[in-house]
# Entry
Amino acid sequence: MRLLALSTVFLALSSAFLLYALSNETRQLEERVQAQERRLASARGDIAVLKADRAHLARPERIAPLARAIGLVQPRPAQLVEASTAFD
Amino acid sequence: MQHGVMIGPGRLAPLAGTGTKLDKRGGGSPLRSAAVAFAIVAAFSTVCGQLIRLAASGGGAFQINMSAPVATGFARPDLVDRNGRLLATDVEMQSLFADPLLVVDRDEVVEKLRRIFPDINGDELRRTLAERGRRFVWIKRGLSPALAQRVHNLGLPGLSFRPELRRAYPAGTLAGHLLGGVNIDNAAVAGVERYLDQNEIVDSVSGAVQTDRRPVALSLDIGVQHAVEDELAAAIETYRAKAAAGLVLDVETGEVVASASVPTVDPMHPEKTMDARHIDRLTGGTYELGSIFKLLTVAMALDSGQAAPESVYDVTKSLTAGRFEIKDAHGAGRPLSVAEIFVKSSNVGAGLLALEAGTQRQREFLEALGLLTPLRTEAGAVAEPMVPKRWDQIETITIAYGHGLAVAPLQFAAAAAALVNGGELIQPTFLKGGAGLKRGATSKHRAGGDGARRRVVSRETSARIAEMMRSNVAQQGGTGRRADAAGYRVGGKTGTAEIAAGGRYEPNAVIASFLGAFPMEKPRYLTLVMLFEPERTAASGGEITAGHTAAPVTRGIVERIAPMLGVMPLTTEPSR
# Structure
């Protein structure tokens, strides 16, 4: 009888501990997921800003005067040939 | 602690005076002890069983129920041009709010914030912060990181930031009219942005949550758009025009490759399009377009078989209808063929062709081209055509050369595209690949159409029109000579329309237009250039006609955009 009682107490305690450990692990995993999601959202925000920055820097209104400043001009018709005939 | 003495291995003898008590207590009710023990075991077993079950099922879905956050704005997909270059995107910005209950010194808050934001209404903010029943008050939304940092450095209690999505247009004013714009909540107010909202291509979000949606590709080409805007801005300077508009349309697909109206608007301030000077002149207004309408009149005459390009009409006499007399300003002094009527832009000739066809036929033809019914695109409704209430002989004559019927330039360009693409009417679209409009919307707004291409003139008529357009630019004496971009086989028609004001036409206030297409052996792109009220300048040889203003602008545009569009220059004229 006593053995049975002790066994059940031990079983209950170990189960409780196991459950606590699992619950704790779940919480930690959830925190990690949330942290990852925060980092992901932050990274996506950064990417959006960088994309906008790149597009802003590459806008034709900015590139055209820079190109002219280094001596580039519109191609003349004689300078354009089909790629297939360029090396004939 | 054991009570007793050892009397044998492992056994205890009860001490005197204790035996009775022990016996009485231990052996009083064995049944009851067993029952209690059983109950305890059962209870523990139940608890253990439940714990084991919970532990074993721990891998199941973990669910947290939270009240749904209130949506505070919209996450919008990126807008890109036909080559994937970015035109609009959402970026995270900080918005400043206050909790009036936590604000310690209202005057200090207002005073310090006004140093950073001079446009804040101090009295109103002070009053709002005094409302202790409120826990949330927006102060300034969409702050740049630098401004947000300055506010943060003030260290004022009761002020906090909330991240929000704000629309950014990295190309600046480029295609501003077409893109439209959004309000403070990132909801569309105009243009293609509005198309996204109307077709539910946006997500309601709380905070700065980027959308997972794929970018929406427009039909525009950023390079072509810039070239058109740049040339139009230069033309305004050169010809001292009040405004200018330009369009490049793919006549095969209906895709608008460039759509520009100068002065431009910044999509960050879409409210400016309400200003008359800044309206989108391609879609937001209707105009009598003048002689470029002769393209339609000649096509009507050729397609019905009433005339051939060689058919000759006597244009030496003026046309009289009621009290009106129509004559050519610079008459040839001899009868002209239909091809010559086109090239020399004879008003009398166009009038004669329209009279010969008749009012009914003219109306049906323009109806078939979609010029008498409202047009809708992804950027919204195009200004409705102003059709004359009375359409008699005099209207038939004037409409033949572009007066009396006012249409939006985009609508006219779509109709003209059908005359050079082999004869099929196309639906102009601002989305890559087209089909941006739902079929229902298309059929509702496009007369007799269901979004599919519809033949309006024969292939032969289309080919003849293309030949005449090329002749008008390539031949000596053609009004479009100055549009001839070397190597790119441009064709087109000029139109100089006097602007009606106070019930009469003002001869020195004109809209100079050039409707062009290239390469004319198989037209692929249609261009429309319009200059509003150009002045007589040295660059135009003292003229304000389209041949001296809009035509050379078209040449400049074609020379820049043809290489971008993959149209190869040729040194010799190809045969059709």
Observations:
- The longest helix of chain A spans residues 2-57.
